[in-house]
Design goal:
Layout: H1 14-27, H2 43-66, H3 70-77
Helix pairs in contact: 1-2
């Protein structure tokens, strides 16, 4: 059984991230990604979706920082970069 030790920086964001995941999967041509058992898919497919989500999140963060958005600056300052891995 997998163990998820990730914690969200901003509470309540998981629904928005799930929605983004399904939008990205749909844009990539994976219809009904919401109902598919992700364990039955090749890791390449899941990684492809996850990689594109990461690209989109980085682009959103860069755009927010470029616009000097106070909320984005505050959110990034809350991230603990020295958190132990694994």
């Amino acid at each position: 059984m997998p163990r998820n030790t990730n914690s969200t920086v901003i509470p309540g964001v998981s629904n928005a991230l799930d929605q983004m995941k399904f939008e990205v999967a749909n844009e990539l041509g994976f219809t009904n990604y919401e109902q598919i058992d992700k364990g039955s898919l090749p890791s390449r497919v899941n990684g492809y979706v996850g990689g594109n989500i990461t690209k989109r999140l980085v682009a959103l963060g860069q755009a927010a920082l470029a616009n000097n958005t106070e909320a984005a600056i505050n959110a990034t300052s809350q991230v603990n970069l020295e958190q132990p891995i694994g």
